[in-house]
Write a structure and sequence with these properties.
With 505 residues, the protein is of the alpha+beta class. Helices cover 54% and strands 12% of the residues. It is elongated.
Amino acid sequence: MAIYHFSIKNIGRSNGRSAVAAAAYRSGEKLVDSVYGKEQDYTRKTGVEYKNIYAPTHANENLLDRQTLWNEVEKSELKKNGDLKLTARLAKEFEIAFPHEVDADTRKRMLDELAQTIVKNHNVIVDAVIHAPHTKSGSDERNYHAHIMFTTRSINEQGELGKKAREFNDDGKNLTLAYRELWANMVNRELEQIGTQERVSHLSYSDLKYDLEPTMHEGSKVTQLRRQGIDTEISLKNDLIKQQNAEKQRLPEILKGLEQEISLAESKISKYQSEIRLEASKTPFRATETQKQVEQPKPQENRLERKSEPSSPKLNQLKDELSRLESEIIQLKRESDTAYNGYIELQKNKPQEKLFGLVPNPKFSAWKEKYSELKHEFDQKEGDLKLAKSLMASRSDDIKKEIMRLRSQPTIQPNIAREKPQELDFNSVYRQLNHEQKQAYQSIKSVLEQKISGSELDKKLKQAQQAFVEKFKENPNFEVPKLELQKQREQEEVRTASKSKGMER
């Protein structure tokens, strides 16, 4: 699952930070801070995948050296007497996360594009570094991210650090939103090119009108404890929030499934009605006198009459079996699609059979076993689905034959009006639903009320209510549709997403 992350930070003296130290840490280099007279050595740092300095074409070449650049930045923020400006902002930093679906070359190309855009827009120098995930420290193995530091002073005509670039001070909110949108578009472009359906958004949950709760900021201490396997109140709270958000995001899927079932049921009803009308049209009309008797029947009189809606125990049994087969086919189709999606996803992540072309790869054996398991499951579901469809076609033919048989034989129907069975309404059904069933309906209702209104809302609610009534008629203890494999995957994503918050920035 593609995750969007784009944050903006200030690197300033007010919070005790040094531009030289920040650049040394991010690049994994040893830099000497001439202002503080201190050596910043991070050469033992691992995980630096790519680093580069981007500058306007007229910038002096000496500023393309990392140590020279950030020492000049530190010196530019001194008073005339040589004292430190304690509130000086030394640099801005964009912190971005790459989608794990893209490779190293794509990450480099995306970083180059974004960094050059910053240079062009603000005439500043950019120092950008891509970090690979620190898997040994508990970080998510998909956590490829970049730190993009750039000067707060623009490059003047002489190619040196000049005046402060005030764009982020003057219109920081709109400018930040513009860069967040730019990065989201870049990510989605690459996701589309590699053929995945995943997409990201730079908008917040509230902007997207999602009823999702944002997580709490964990901070470095909480992140460190999480990596050590120690839970805190904040980390446990965030895990719960992520789990609840994942469940809420599944509601549209449940609603879509119910809408499909409603549509299918309406289609079948329409088909049966058409068949009944067709058979009725083939029956010869009675004499005028007989028709009058039908229109004005005498009390307590029995007469020969063809039923407009034929019925028999056999026909009812066939319809019940057809309805059961329809539900079974829907469930089998879902299970088949789930198995197929897992099967395809596994194909995309096929590991090498041999490491370095020589040594058997243990991951390949595990992959092959899982691959065979999913393929067998998919083939089995497809076989069951084919059989169910064949039985459904057979039962449909049997229903047609039974209707024709009943239509061809007149039956004695008493004139006394039969008492119609009481129809179940949604209110009476809702009172009998269990907690999970009621919760599912309320969740669906909430989603509908957020997305639509007016007469369309009433229509959709009635359709959803009817779907619940029909399900209750079939089985009062019906289960809310769940895709178990997808649910497991979402739970795994929640766990991995919570780990990704602890990436080393």
